[in-house]
Amino acid sequence: MRLRRLGKEAEVIRVGKYELDEVLGEGPLGKAYSAIDTRTGQKVVLRGFVRPKEADEEHWQKAIERFNQELTAVQRLEHPNIVRLIEFGESEGVYFIATEFFVGQNLRQWIDKSPPPSLDAVLAFLSKVSEVLDFAWLHGIAHGDITPYNLLFPSEDPETVKVLNYGVAHARQKLGSPYLAPEQLTGFQGDLRSDLYALGVVAYEWLTKRNPFAGETVEEVCRRIQTLLPPPIAGLPSFLNDVLLTLMAKDPARRYQSGEELRHDLPKRQCSKASLRESAVTAEMLWTPESYQPPPSLADYELHQCDLREIQRRLAAAKAAARRKRAAIRRWAIAAATFLGWGLILGYLTARYHAEGEARAKLLKGSASLLSPPSQEWRPLASVGPLLPGDFLRTNPQGQVILELADGSRLLVQPGTTLHARSLGAQRGKRRRSFALLQGRVFVAARPIYGGAHRFVLRCPRITVKVKGTSFEAQVQQAFTNIATLQGTLEAALDGRVEMIPAGQKLLCDLQSGKVDLQNLNDQEKAALLGMAEAVALSVWEEWKHSVADGAERWLVLPMASALEGVTEGRRLSKEAMTDAEAQATATTAIRALCLALEGGDEYPTEIGLSDLSGLGLEEKDARRILSAFEGGRLLSYRSDGHHYEFTARLKDSRHTLVRVRNGKTTFEEPPPSAEEE
User: Fold this and answer.
1) Do 426 and 409 form a contact (C-beta atoms < 8 A)?
2) Residue 8 is assigned to a structural domain of this protein
3) 519 and 612: one domain?
4) Is the link from the previous residue into 374 a cis peptide, with omega within 30 of 0?
């Protein structure tokens, strides 16, 4: 997204590579704009929307998956009478659709303003639209929402009709639409015969200026669709009345089965299926709102209120506010680091404002098998890298596994367990960690992440557990699910109700009956949980080294070298090791302060001074304070393309360790040991 002001009047707003122009109209996805592709100069129609704040994550993801799947299929449709889909995607949180641009009127405008069409015009209209419907269905695609608004006549060729909005029928709330076929009243998307039904309704409305199934309420419309037989149109040739009523037959089997069958009858001015038309209809079961059960879709959200221009203005304002906040935090961090003599704990700051790299889970101990869809092959986890979102992990019957997430949470996965990693997010704004326990037993030491709602979710049969920072165990067997809390409090959702599980208690759920029982843990169970907690625990020293090396969200810098005494399993460090640890702690804080300074704007600076950090806008004393942590009081190198950055420096330790920082992730590259050290 880009927003650029030109004087007091002109304003340029972009979505990805598209620059917005004027509003063309409104639809189920909000306002449609004319826009220019800034790379090619092509003019397009652009619509866009963002995820509503109140949207449930799982439901929204299913709706977006459907959005992507249907539009991916529509991209194959190349037909002169189908409005072409040029591109769809997501840019900085804004989902967009770019389609072919042309000037014209939709059929709704013709119906409202023009006299009824001639017989030849109706026959040509039915023939052209049915050909488009056949073509799309040949590719396995039904439109699902044929209405006068989705049929357009270009100004340069009014004899041509174009079909609009293939692939986005699911974005409109269609319940109550008088163009729905009876079989669509259950939420069914429809097939070719459903589209032909809607074509018949549209043609009937064009000829009579009224929709036969329109009503005052949703219930009235749906029941008229179920039971009403539209009367023949007075003055219309009987064959065309037969054609229209055949198109609108309640039973799909009594309709034309393809547009080709319809086009076969039109030139002959006959209806070969007239004998199959219903003489009366009695609905077996009257429609009720509960009958309508469509799959998750964008229609479940109020996206028709979206306005790309306002969305981008709000995003620009939010980014400006975030920049100001980051700048304030950067100034505070540097000032605090100076005041505290680099004895600063930056855990809160970086957990909230530092963007971690690719979200993943790392195998710390044990061996397991990994399944990465769409592959159907289980492979050793260690040989294929980290566990990623969407992967399935399976432990063998003998061994247990320890996994660690980027935020520091750890999972002890017991033998014979199958776990599905749904979300391992650690980036800013994407910190939900979510797993599904399909079978077996897992112990979780979840680390708290600041801000937002529940950040760790474990889904078990009939139970969903949500926590921020808690130690607990979940066990799934054939007959029951067992959730036990060691530390903190769990929120467990069971079939629409919520149970709180405090520390020292467990919840048993019978998978068949759904009956739950909250019990206290006995001493043996507590001891087992404590043993698991010890298995995944880190010492202070190990945690500090690990967080620095992996660039995780929490960063711990020990304030004084004297605090390092005895932290490594009770052993005292040598004077040289103490000095090295202090140098590393000082350098780590300097690195974090420098990263915060680099990340304060929309783009990283392409050049900075290696010996004075010029180009970052820091005060001279702050720049000196940062550089004093490194050998020679300077950086060795810095490079950036505006979107990524990397810098190197040497530490003031006994080994002159080289530190390399890429986009906030730090690695230490020690020189090889000398012969004496070996």
Assistant:
1) no
2) no
3) no
4) yes
d(CA 543, CA 238): 84
Cβ–Cβ < 8 Å for 181, 133: no
Same domain, 529 and 578: no
Query: Exposed, middle or buried by CB within 10 Å (0-12, 13-18, 19+), for 660?
Result: middle
Nearest Cα to 272, choosing from 285, 257, 284, 283?
A: 257
Model pLDDT for residues 146-202, shown as the tens digit of each residue: 999 999 998 888 789 999 999 998 888 888 899 999 999 988 889 999 999 999 999
Relative orientation angle of helices 192-208 and 238-247, to the nearest 10 degrees: 140
Question: Distance (Å, rounded) from C-alpha 543 to C-alpha 657?
Answer: 19
Same structural domain, 514 and 630: no
Q: What is the pLDDT at residue 385?
A: 59
576: left (phi over 0), alpha (psi -120 to 50) or beta: alpha
E-only strand ranges, 205-308 = none
The predicted-structure confidence for 239-257, as pLDDT tens digits, reads as follows 999 999 999 999 999 999 9
Does residue 546 lie within any of the structural domains? no
d(CA 630, CA 419): 44
Domain holding 139, by residue range, is 56-84+102-300
Which residues lie closer than 8 Å to 470 by C-beta, 6 or more apart?
444, 446, 456, 485, 487, 488, 489, 490
* Burial classification of residue 677, based on how many CB atoms lie within 10 Å of its CB (0-12 exposed, 13-18 middle, 19 or more buried): exposed
- Residue 73 covered by a domain: yes
Of 199-208, 448-457, 496-505, highest mean pLDDT = 199-208
Could you tell me if 513 and 659 lie in one domain? no
Classify residue 214 by its DSSP letter.
-
Residue that the structure tokens 């008088």 belong to = 178
Is 22 domain-assigned?
A: no
Predicted structure pTM score: 0.51
Kindly state whether residues 118 and 232 are assigned to the same domain: yes
Q: Are residues 368 and 230 in the same domain?
A: no
- For 591-627, what is each residue's pLDDT tens digit? 878 887 787 655 678 889 999 998 887 778 878 888 9
Q: Locate 124 and state its tokens.
A: 């040509």
The span from the first CA to the last CA of the chain, in angstroms, equals: 55
CA distance linking residue 316 with residue 308, whole number of Å = 12
